[in-house]
Amino acid sequence: MTVQPEPGPVAGDTLLRCENVSLSFGNVRALVEVSLTLSAGEITALVGDNGAGKSTLVRCISGIHRPHSGRIVFDGTEIDFHSPEDAREAGIETVHQNLALVEDLTVWQNLFLNREIVHRVGPVALLDRRAMQSRAREMVSTLAVNVPAVRSRVRRLSGGQRQAVAICRAAGFSSKLVIMDEPTAALGVQETARVEELIVRLRDEGHAVLLISHNFAQVMRLSRQVWVMRAGRCVGGRRTAETTGEEIVALITGAAAR
Amino acid sequence: MERTDMANATLAAPDREAWSARLKDLGFWAEWAALVGLVVLVVVFQVLNPTFLSPGNIASMLVAAAILIVLAVGQTFVVATAGIDLSIASTMTLGAVAFGQAYAAGWGLVPACVLGIVAAALVGVINGVIIAKGRITDFIVTLGTLSAASGLALILSDGKPVTIIDPALLRLSTGGIGIFGWPFLIAVAVALAAHVTLFHTRFGTHLLATGGAPESATAMGISTARIKIAVYTISGVLAGLGAILLVARIGAAEPAANTSFLLNSVAAVVLGGVSLFGGRGTIIGPFIGALLLVALVNGLTLLGVSQFYQPLAVGIVVVLAALLTRFQR
After folding, report:
1. Does the pLDDT of residue B326 top 80, yes or no?
2. How many helices (DSSP H) and strands (DSSP E) are in chain B?
3. ipTM summary value
4. Torsions phi, psi for A166 (to 5 deg)
């Protein structure tokens, strides 16, 4: 399904480090000196209440927002993304909450959106539709079940299929880090299980995964590390094996100190 | 409306459905409304007046359709990004006047043509930059340039038409290959180039993504502002090309409003099944839509129906087509 990430940091090494990242929208302080780290080759969970700043932080890492202060170090170099394209170039792919699919385009067009394969005919670069379609077929063919036809429009896919296409795309371009913003929030039980399989497989293939989720059972099941955000701050981090759902809830609500 | 259940049920569903199933689908008819309408019109007019399909009449219809096709192609690019270019006809007028003034000042045919296209392209660039960078609605910006461009045309020409008699221009408007006049062949070439651009280049895909889901396009690293500027520029350039065809056709550069060209360019796009919400469309659709509108007016004229009925007929056809597009898949 995926392209193996280029040999880079060994599993367990720090892949991404946020240091005192802050961002305000007008008077609203969306992020206040957030610091956290994320290790290569493992699933890190980011939890917190609605409006805690999880998505804003993710948007900073994936190049949609630029932090006003603080720094983000990815794979050993400090990053300053001006657009999502910069983040993708650096090896950070994001599966957004809304999936960022274009409904009127086909599955293969979505998989290769802004990563199109072209062949040159004289002065013009034309799309190599055949190459993209066959590569797209390879990419989706290893999805557990319910493989969407690559030439069907995304509009016609089920929620689970859409999620799978978005995850496929994120995994497909030798990305080092795949960020997933509530990947199973809109899915049924079966589809959730399948998406979780996909997430585990991403990790097994060597991608680091940053998982935002409201589902504690899922977080405890999948992640090795949990970071908790509250009111724009990162209020604590735990190794998943050494904590409990109760402790995480307490951190989220503010009942427990860090 | 969404048939997710169907998609669920079929593992690796066949990419294309059977034709019989398609024919029963109202969405199919919606997508091909222009072609169906054109065929119906041709049959009706031919039955009522056998000269309708005479080679001479076909040739004159195709030449008459050329300008509208060129404009409709430009409009299609804009509408596919969920925008609209209301200034397209007055931009053409400005291009024609710039062409006429330069020619009258002794610039020679080719430099004058280039100036006409550049002037129209500039209006397009201005539209695009204001819409993309200023984040103002397409509707308002192009409504403003509609007025500004026709005003400029009046100022430049002092309200007077310039007669242009040039042998090359005359050959352009009267010559051709068989029943296909040069203006029509130019329009076909424009449509072909537009089709390739829309469906076989990265730009075309990014354009459709920008129209269909701007946020998704942005998240994937596509600069939607650049796409917006590009489509309005394309619309401007094609308006400039339309200006040359217009001057060749009427033998003069007039600062006239050309309002019917604006309405008909939008009408052809709607008839062609291009979604006004952006993200989906074809070039062949508006191409046929433009032919349909020209055939409608031509046929009514042949039948001796008063000219006053033509706008009424066009209006009814366009609204019917728009109703049909509600059933698009």
Report:
1. no
2. 16, 4
3. 0.84
4. -65, -40
